[in-house]
Design goal:
This protein is mainly alpha-helical. It contains eight helices and no strands.
């Protein structure tokens, strides 16, 4: 049994120190994932808290069918997607096609000369269906191995490859429409 699995066992018994250790191992990764989805620092912080609350409350449900890392990422992805869905439902902005507006989000890890391109890329990513968006973020932004993406998304490796190809094709079309001067 690895250290992460042991930490989850201890967390399921209410061990707060084990929870702090697991938090230290995964908080930056969970936050980065949430930030890629939400493109809003306070929302990403809120989702990160929600993810770890869920981990604390559901540690006993971990069956060991995947790695702890995969399980944590699955919770982070699902919590981020659910947050987006609830934000869309609770906002009256659904009357406006907000996807056409360039978000004013500036990812803190992107250097200055790439920020405009990053804004356009995130705008385009936001138009992808959830499965394509998840595969793209995990595969090309977070650079996860394809098999880990399949495990996180609970789909086949072939399905991941298909989602990535469709996401790239859709992004290429969307980016071309957002920036006609852009070269392939």
């Amino acid at each position: 049994m690895n250290i992460e699995t042991e930490l989850l066992k201890q967390i399921s018994r209410g061990d707060k120190i084990a929870f702090e250790e697991l938090y230290a191992l995964f908080s930056n990764k969970v936050y980065a994932t949430a930030l890629h989805y939400l493109q809003n620092i306070p929302d990403a912080e809120e989702v990160t808290q929600d993810v770890f609350l869920s981990i604390f409350n559901n540690a006993h449900t971990f069956k060991g069918n995947s790695s702890v890392s995969t399980w944590v990422y699955r919770i982070a992805v699902n919590t981020s997607l659910n947050f987006l869905k609830s934000r869309k439902k609770s906002s009256f902005l659904y009357l406006v096609d907000y996807k056409k507006e360039i978000p004013d989000f500036e990812h803190p890890g992107i250097i200055e000369e790439n920020k405009e391109n990053a804004k356009l890329m995130y705008l385009a990513i936001n138009t992808l269906p959830d499965a394509q968006k998840t595969a793209f973020i995990l595969g090309f932004i977070e650079e996860k191995p394809r098999q880990e993406i399949a495990d996180i998304m609970e789909i086949s490796l072939k399905a991941v490859e298909s989602l990535l190809q469709r996401a790239k094709a859709n992004l290429k079309i969307k980016l071309k429409s957002l920036n006609p001067k852009r070269r392939n």
